[in-house]
């Protein structure tokens, strides 16, 4: 019984640590790519978007039946304007990349493309997840405990 309980606690702490790791890994990468203060936006906005848009899952895709486009990856970047997935009508591909590049473990391309998307702080509003969870809030918690 006691052994089972400590096994349970061990598993719980491993899960919690994995979560902390994921978000602090993102914080470190954002910082090293100059995303803190980029276009006047604190990087907490990107962590908030990643948490609510993809739960830090780089492999996630979401289809938008409205315009038949798809959102890709950790920041949920849209195929209508920003990347090419060979199936979105009148796609622009402003980032000049295949959308699959936004699904890699290595998020370098995703960060680069995010920089293309956001020309001013207002542009964060294109993301529903950001609109619903991030504006006019204290976002300090999103980089708390990461030691940056
Ligand atoms: C971003 O927000 C954090 C926490 O609120 C703060 O410590 C940091 O200085 C801010 N960065 C910029 C570039 O304003």
From TrEMBL:
Catalyzed reactions per annotation: Hydrolysis of (1->4)-beta-linkages between N-acetylmuramic acid and N-acetyl-D-glucosamine residues in a peptidoglycan and between N-acetyl-D-glucosamine residues in chitodextrins
InterPro entries: Glyco_hydro_22, Glyco_hydro_22_CS, Glyco_hydro_22_lys, Lysozyme-like_dom_sf
Organism annotation: Peromyscus maniculatus bairdii
Signal peptide from the UniProt entry: 1-18
Taxonomic placement: Eukaryota, Metazoa, Chordata, Craniata, Vertebrata
Name of the featured protein: lysozyme
Ranges of residues in domain Glycosyl hydrolases family 22 (GH22): 95-113
GO BP, sorted A to Z: defense response to Gram-negative bacterium; defense response to Gram-positive bacterium; killing of cells of another organism
Entry's EC annotation: 3.2.1.17
């Amino acid at each position: 019984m006691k052994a089972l309980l400590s096994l349970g606690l061990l598993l719980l702490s491993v899960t919690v640590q994995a979560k902390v790791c994921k978000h602090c890994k993102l914080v470190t990468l954002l910082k090293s790519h100059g995303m803190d203060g980029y276009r006047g936006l604190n990087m907490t906005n990107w962590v908030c978007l990643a948490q609510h848009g993809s739960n830090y899952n780089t492999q996630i895709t979401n289809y938008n039946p409205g315009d038949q486009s798809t959102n890709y990856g950790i920041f949920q970047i849209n195929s209508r304007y920003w990347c090419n997935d060979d199936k979105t009508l009148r796609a622009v591909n402003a980032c000049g990349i295949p959308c699959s590049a936004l699904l890699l473990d290595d998020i370098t391309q995703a960060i680069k493309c995010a920089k293309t998307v956001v020309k001013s702080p207002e542009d964060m509003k294109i993301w529903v997840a950001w609109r619903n969870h991030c504006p006019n809030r204290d976002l300090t918690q999103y980089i708390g405990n990461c030691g940056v």
